[in-house]
Write a structure and sequence with these properties.
Largest sheet: 8 strands, parallel
Strand order of the largest sheet: 1-2-3-4-5-6-7-8
Distance between the termini: 27 Å
Helix content: 25-40%
Number of helices: 10
Number of strands: 8
CATH class: Alpha Beta
CATH superfamily: Metal-dependent hydrolases
Order of helices and strands: EHEHEHEHEHEHEHHEHH
Oligomer: single chain
Structural class: alpha/beta
Number of domains: 1
Length: 280
């Protein structure tokens, strides 16, 4: 009897339709990705690379985006869950979060923190009820942050130790410039003092033109050393990743970056951790 391999999950990808009109960041300047991206575009790539399921993540800060993604998820067999958006600082945030959580496809929520000018936004008192509602609904909080946000993220988790947090894109270290600090120290502190998970995604984009596995390796090794294989989650950030690499190239790079691990550890990062964290 042949043993079945563990499911492989891409825990961070996007779909969008430009005509919806709420993607403020997506302009013609990003020509390669300034078009619609839908399941018909990604499904063949999943089959070729051995990815069994995905988590769609919001790309616009609107409730309309969340509902659009939930509809896509319901109609797309490869989608295992949705990380949507809700106005966490709104007076009725708890009711909105509870209402969205009734949708079985919703697995998490993500404010677009790196686009909010105030790095202290996440600590504002008016955001607290929304965060408590995420906890109460057993949803995951995706933290879209850069290194300057990390001290506040640590403070946030001191206030909400039971909030299940995933740090997107390894917190976007400045790989292209070769900078390690203060990113490395902040991530070490989060690993030590919190239960946060981290996504192994978006790193090719941070490395920029001429990216290489060799340049990414020290950053991935730091995350592995501090968070361990049990708290890292693979994601592609497709189609944004295609600004630098094809889907298959990033899959191959991730496998190369994890090649030194035991098979069980690789299986966790490439799928099992996403299943556990998002309740897929």
């Amino acid at each position: 009897m042949t043993a079945t391999r563990p499911r492989r999950v891409d825990a961070h990808q996007h779909y969008w339709r430009l005509a919806r009109g709420d993607y403020g960041w997506l302009t013609p300047a990003l020509a390669p990705i300034y078009r619609d991206f839908e399941p018909a575009d990604l499904t063949p790539l999943l089959a070729r690379t051995g990815i069994d399921a995905t988590v769609i993540v919001q790309a616009a800060p609107t409730l309309g985006e969340t509902r659009f993604l939930l509809e896509l998820a319901a109609a797309t067999p490869t989608v295992a869950g949705v990380v949507g958006w809700a106005p966490l600082d709104a007076p009725d945030a708890p009711e909105l979060v509870a209402d969205l959580a009734r949708q079985p496809g919703l697995k998490g929520l993500r404010p677009m923190l790196h686009d909010i000018p105030d790095v202290d936004w996440m600590l504002r008192p008016e955001v607290t009820p929304g965060l408590r509602a995420i906890e109460a609904a057993d949803l995951t909080f995706d933290a879209l942050v850069r290194p300057p946000h990390l001290p506040n993220l640590r403070r946030l988790l001191e206030r909400h130790p039971n909030l299940r947090v995933v740090i997107d894109h390894g917190a976007k270290p400045e790989i292209a410039g070769g900078a390690r600090e203060p990113w490395a120290s902040h991530m070490a502190a989060l690993a030590r003092d919190t239960r946060a998970w981290v996504k192994l995604s978006g790193l090719v984009t941070e490395d920029g033109v001429g990216w290489s596995v060799e340049r990414l390796q020290p950053y991935v090794d730091h995350l592995l050393d501090r968070f361990g294989p049990a708290r890292l989650i693979f994601g592609s950030d497709w189609p944004v990743v295609t600004l630098r690499a094809s889907y298959a190239e990033w899959i191959a790079a991730a496998e190369a970056l994890l090649a030194g691990l035991e098979r069980d550890a690789r299986d966790r990062i490439l799928g099992l951790n996403a299943i556990a964290c998002y309740g897929l």
